[in-house]
Amino acid sequence: MNITSFLLVFVGGGFGSIIRYAIGIIIKPITPHFPYATLIANSLGCLLLGLILGFVTAKTSISNTHYTLFTVGFCGGLTTFSSFTLENMRFLEQGQFLQFLLYSLGTFTVGILFIYMGMVLHRQF
After folding, report:
1. Whole-angstrom Cα distance, residue 102 to residue 104?
2. pLDDT value of position 88
3. Which one, of 93, 89, 116, lies nearest residue 103 by Cα?
4. Neighbours of 2 (CB within 10 A)
């Protein structure tokens, strides 16, 4: 580990967090009763992660620097597992078991699907 890796994670995470925050601002007024912003942020993060992993597994040239910046940094700042968990806890506390089930399964299913889509999309480039 070197200081450069930490800086890459810091910068990437900052940009990912800004995008996540912007998604929340844009989506919240539209849908105040369901955490679509978290679902969208996590889905986009999974799609990007899938694209990057597609390049890595295809042994396309992607440097460790770019990998660290985009996967650990940007995707880590963009995706929001802690928010996802808190929102699910709120559903359970409020007795909204159907919302809890739909949101949990939807997030998991869409996440898997988007990572796969990202890996497939990378082949188009």
Report:
1. 6
2. 92
3. 89
4. 7
Dist. CA 80–CA 11, nearest whole Å: 17
Helix-strand-coil split of the chain, %, nearest 5? 80, 0, 20
Which residues, in sequence order, are CB contacts of 120 under 8 Å at separation 6+?
A: 50, 54
* Choice between 55 and 60, residue whose per-residue pLDDT is larger: 55
Q: What percent of the chain has pLDDT over 90?
A: 61
Angle of the 81-93 helix axis to the 97-122 helix axis, nearest 10: 160
The reply to whether the predicted model has a pTM over 0.85 is no
Average pLDDT over residues 65-89: 89
- Residue of 28, 65, 22 lying closest to 44 (CA atoms): 22
- Which tokens go with 18? 């800004």
CA 107/CA 99 separation, integer angstroms: 12
Separation CA 42–CA 28 (nearest Å): 15
Q: Where are the domains of the chain?
A: 3-122
